[in-house]
Amino acid sequence: MLTKSIKKEIMTYLDSDALNLLANLKGRWDCEKEYEDWNDYAEKMKESIPSSWKFVKATKRPFGFHAKIESLKVSFFLKPKGRYVTLSAKVVR
């Protein structure tokens, strides 16, 4: 169940520097995917989340990751908005 405390954790993460990190990783991945290991990118994403969350996996499309927060699986992903990009979160069933 999506509780107020989990919502607050998610919103705090979305308001952090996570967008800049993921946008930078995506830009670099787009340029270097032929030469670099995807697991290095997944590790950077994993390092960016709070220690109370469990990193599940990184995804290339949409670019982001899944994390387990208490009993919920949440997808964090970049979402294009015209010339900009936003970081979104969605509970995955």
Give a structural overview.
There is one protein chain. This protein is α+β, with helices and mostly antiparallel strands. It has one domain. The protein has helices spanning 4-14, 18-32, 38-48; strands at residues 54-59, 64-69, 72-81, 84-92. A four-stranded antiparallel β-sheet has the order 1-2-3-4. Helix 2 packs antiparallel against helix 3. The longest helix has 15 residues, at 18-32. The radius of gyration is 13 Å and the shape is globular.
Keywords:
93 residues, four-stranded antiparallel β-sheet
Q: What is the topological layout?
A:
Elements: H1 4-14, H2 18-32, H3 38-48, E1 54-59, E2 64-69, E3 72-81, E4 84-92
Antiparallel strand pairs: 1-2, 2-3, 3-4
Summary?
With 93 residues, the protein is α+β, with helices and mostly antiparallel strands. It is built from three helices and four strands, in the order H-H-H-E-E-E-E.
